[in-house]
Design goal:
About 45% of the residues lie in helices and about 15% in strands. The protein is α/β, with parallel strands linked by helices and about 375 residues long. Strands 1-2-6-5-4-3-7-8-9 form a 9-stranded mixed beta sheet, sandwiched between helices. Strands 10-12-11 form a 3-stranded antiparallel beta sheet. It starts with a helix and ends with a strand.
């Protein structure tokens, strides 16, 4: 296993050999060892030379990085590799992760926008992210200043999970001003990159990062963006990947609203509340909710009783006053993951509302 991992790390550092060239071979069943020791006959030129002369010394250094606590590497062929990303033609050959690697297979909403947003835009991003996180969605963004930062912080404030996809190696934080935030995300969520440790930020890395942000997610929300914003690239990639694209409108006098308005004219869904997005994503979220309940240990729950009403025990445990997830776990014996999943579904159905302070309340009918 160690030799195989070392081979993958060597593959990740081959100059000029990326997903476009490697993925077709990996998907045909060629092992990483075969590619490095005996490249297929159809591979020639510079690629063949690179495959036969990997930088084993640098791969050894990467291996030592992986020996540190909570450091992971997920190759494209691993069962733990995020399923939403694996089907893309240009899926990363492998992903470096610092933090919770399991989050990469959780239901995610990407949030992107201007690096220099208005105060209102920052507030909106934080509020939406907090709502998503408290509802059980993982918030994914790019660790940039502005909307990205507000989205990550909002998710953490909501007591949920957030993923930061980086355009550098995971041992380098860009921008440096977000170093503390990156440490907090690594402790409560995950930092992710296709770039090996030590990789510095370069202009061409950011579009590659953006395709991962959209590829990991069920949909992409653009909060504020100028007409030349990189967020529009992420939105375009999301559309090409058959992901949902959402945009928040703004004043016609605000230059940071023009990118969102263009997206809406081109078919992005106009949203005013986080509930608009949860409702739109509901069909895509059902498989995650089912898988979560089947996979988690703890008290079994069914999606519906014979009368068709959902989660009767959880609803009974909620009572008449706003209640926290921890209290519901204590009252029902369900796992925290199962409670979060059920609350998300009930909220999408309009039977539960999210209240300040991470509380939930039944909607009286």
């Amino acid at each position: 296993m160690q030799d195989d991992l070392l081979a993958w790390l060597a593959l990740m550092r081959l100059p000029g050999v990326g997903p476009a060239k490697l993925n077709p071979l990996l998907r045909k069943g060629f092992s990483v060892d075969e590619l490095l020791r005996h490249p297929p006959s159809g591979v020639g030129g510079n690629m063949r030379e690179a495959l036969l002369a990997p930088d084993w010394a640098q791969a050894e250094k990467d291996l030592r990085w992986l020996e540190e606590e909570h450091h992971h590497f997920l190759p494209l062929t691993s069962p733990a590799y995020p399923a939403t990303l694996s089907t893309l033609p240009d899926a990363p050959v492998g992903l470096f992760v610092h933090g919770r690697a399991d989050l990469l297979n959780s239901p995610q909403i990407a949030m992107v926008g201007s690096r220099n947003p208005s105060r209102g835009g920052e507030q909106t991003a934080g509020d939406f992210a907090r709502h998503f996180a408290s509802s059980g969605l993982t918030v994914t963004s790019g660790l940039a200043m502005g909307i990205d930062t507000a989205s990550h912080r909002g998710a953490l404030a909501g007591g949920g999970a957030t993923i930061a996809v980086m355009a550098t190696g995971l041992d380098r934080v860009y921008p440096a001003s977000n170093r503390d935030l990156a440490h907090e995300i690594a402790a409560n969520g995950a930092l992710v990159s296709e770039f090996p440790p030590g990789t510095s930020p370069r202009r061409g890395h950011f579009p590659r990062r953006n395709r991962i942000i959209s590829g990991l997610s069920l949909g992409v929300l653009v909060v504020e963006a100028a007409l030349k914003s990189g967020s529009l690239i992420t939105a375009r990639l999301a559309g090409e990947q058959s992901r949902e694209v959402f945009a928040i409108p703004g004043s016609i006098h605000n230059p940071l609203a023009r990118g969102c308005h263009r997206l809406i004219r081109e078919g992005a869904k106009l949203v005013e509340t986080a509930a608009d997005i949860l409702e739109e994503l509901a069909p895509s979220l059902h498989p995650y909710l089912l898988d979560s309940e089947k996979a988690k240990p703890g008290k079994d729950v069914s999606l519906a009783d014979n009368s068709g009403s959902q989660y009767p025990e959880l609803i009974q445990a909620m009572g008449h006053d706003p209640v926290s997830t921890d209290t519901l776990v204590e009252r029902t014996g369900f796992t925290p993951e199962a409670v979060s999943s059920m609350l998300l579904l009930l909220e999408m159905e309009g039977r539960v509302s999210s209240e300040p302070g991470g509380l939930f309340a039944l909607i009286k009918t």
